[in-house]
Design brief:
This is Group XV phospholipase A2. The chain is α/β, with parallel strands linked by helices and 444 residues long. The chain is built from 17 helices and 16 strands. It has helices at 2-24, 77-85, 113-116, 130-138, 162-178, 192-202, 205-211, 226-234, 245-253, 256-260, 287-293, 297-311, 359-362, 388-391, 393-404, 420-427, 434-443, and strands at 31-34, 42-46, 64-67, 88-90, 95-97, 102-105, 147-149, 184-189, 212-218, 275-276, 281-282, 319-326, 330-335, 347-351, 376-382, 411-412. It starts with a helix and ends with a helix. The structure holds 2-acetamido-2-deoxy-beta-D-glucopyranose (NAG) (6 copies).
Length: 444
Amino acid sequence: MFSSVVNRKFTYSFCIFLCIVKSVHPILHPVVFIPGDGGNQLEAKLNKSNVVHYICEKSTSDYFNIWLNMELLVPIVIDCWIDNIKLIYDNATRTTHNPPGVDIRVPGFGNSETVEWIDPSHATSGAYFKDVANTLVSLGYVRNVSIKGAPYDFRKAPNENQDYFVKLKKLIEDTYEENNQTSVMLIVHSMGGPTSLYFLNLQSQSWKDKYVKNLISLGGAWGGSVKAIKVYAMGDDLGSFVLRPSIMRPQQISLPSTAFLLPSPLFWKPDEILVQTDKKNFTLSNLEEFFKGISFLDGWEMKKDTEKYQLDFKPPGVEVHCLYGTGIDTVERLYYKKGTWLDGIPTLIYGDGDGTVNIRSLTGCQYWRAIQKQKVFYEAIPNTDHMGVLSSNLTQQYITRLIQKNEVNLKEYSNDIFSFTQWLTKLFHHVPDNEQSTKESQSI
Ligand SMILES: *[C@@H]1O[C@H](CO)[C@@H](O)[C@H](O)[C@H]1NC(C)=O
Ligand SMILES: *[C@@H]1O[C@H](CO)[C@@H](O)[C@H](O)[C@H]1NC(C)=O
Ligand SMILES: *[C@@H]1O[C@H](CO)[C@@H](O)[C@H](O)[C@H]1NC(C)=O
Ligand SMILES: *[C@@H]1O[C@H](CO)[C@@H](O)[C@H](O)[C@H]1NC(C)=O
Ligand SMILES: *[C@@H]1O[C@H](CO)[C@@H](O)[C@H](O)[C@H]1NC(C)=O
Ligand SMILES: *[C@@H]1O[C@H](CO)[C@@H](O)[C@H](O)[C@H]1NC(C)=O
C-alpha cells in the first residue's frame, strides 16, 4: 500500500516532468513551403540597349525587387515592368529566356521570408505563407530552422526548372539533418501542387519514406484550370492581386507556367466546350485552333512542351492532405455572344471552385486514394477563395490538429464523392479494374 503510493507519486511527478519536457520540445516535423504561380519574390538586374518608353530604366547597378512590387504596376511604369519580366519563347530550343539585357534571380532560397511575403515591403497584399508560418511558430517552430521556403522561377514549367528540383532535394535532406533527422512536411499552394508531385515522382520510394512526412496541399491545381484559357483570351489577375487583366496579358501569355496550368486532358474530356462562339466551339481536342484564333501559336508550342508533365499523374507515394476552398464562382467556359469573335469580351460562365481553380482540379488528389497505400485526406473549406485558403482559420486549425496529432476530424476520401473518379479511372492503366473498384466501394 505504502509503496504503491510512493510509486504513484513518483510516477506522477515523473510524468509531469516528462510531459512538460514533451510539450516544450515536441517532435516537430520541419516544414518546406513550395509556392505556386507568382508565389515568391523575384529580383531583376538591367543592362538593356532598348526600352519601351523613355521613362523605363535601361540599367541598374544591382538587383532590385521586380515581383511583387506594387510601385511597378502603375500606368506606363507597368509597360517597363512587362518588358523586363516577360519571357521570350524560342521555338527551336523549345525554351524561354529573359529579354535581352535582363537578368532575373530568385532570392532567399531556403529561407521562409520570400515565400511568406511575396512583396518584401510586407504590404498586406503581398502576404503569402505568412499566416501558416505564424501558426507553425505558435506550435514551437522556428523560422529558417524548421520552417524553410523553396522559391523558384514560377514563370517557367518543370521542363525548364530542372535545377530547382536538384536544389529542392538538397534542401529537404539538409532540413531533415538540421532537425535531428526528422522527416519533412511539404506545404504547397496552387501550382506548387503539380510542381511538388513532379518532384516527388522523380524520387525513389525509399527516399520519400525517409525524408518526407507528408504533402499538405492548399488549393492544389492538380488538373490545371480553365482560368488559364481565360488568361490567353483576355488576361487575368490570377486571383491574387488587384491588377487590370488586359494589361497583364502580354506578360502572362509569355510564360510557360500558364501553359502548364491549362486544363489537363486527364480532367477535362476532349469534347467539353471551353470557349464558345457562334462560328466555332473550342475544346481540348481543337485547342490549337484556339491559339490560332488568338494569334498566339507560341502558346500552343508551350502547351505541347508542358503537357507531358500534366499527364504524368502518378500518385506521390507520401501521405497527402488536400485542403481547398469551394463555393466561389470559377470560370468554366468563355462565351462570346453572336457576332463577336475571340478579340471581343466574353461572358464568363461559372462553376464551383475557389475562384481560380475548378473544383475537379482541386479535388484531383482524391484519385490517388485507390492507387497508393499512403493515406489521402481532404478538407473542403467553404466560401474560401484561392488565396483565402492560405489565411483561413480552418486551414490553421487543420494544420494545428495534424501537428498535434488530434486527428479526430480528418477525413479520408471516399470513392463516391465525385463520379469524375470513374472518368479518371478509365484513363489510367494501373488502376484496379471495374470489378475490383466496385467491390472496394461496397466494402466502404
Ligand atoms: C552592358 O551590356 C553591354 C553590351 O550591350 C556590355 O558591353 C557591358 O559590358 C554591359 N555592362 C555590364 C555592367 O554588364
Ligand atoms: C517557329 O517560329 C517561326 C517564326 O515565327 C515560324 O516560322 C516557324 O514555323 C516556327 N516553328 C515551329 C516548329 O513552330
Ligand atoms: C532567415 O534568413 C534570412 C537570410 O539570411 C534573413 O534575412 C531572415 O531575417 C532570417 N529570418 C529569421 C526569422 O531569422
Ligand atoms: C534527437 O533524436 C534523438 C533520438 O530520437 C534523441 O535522443 C535526441 O534527444 C534528439 N535531440 C534533440 C536535440 O532533439
Ligand atoms: C457550340 O456549342 C453549343 C453548345 O453545345 C451548341 O449549341 C452550338 O451549336 C455549338 N456551335 C458550333 C458552331 O458548333
Ligand atoms: C480567426 O481566428 C482569429 C484568432 O483566433 C480570430 O480572432 C478571428 O475572429 C477568426 N476569424 C474567423 C473568420 O473566424
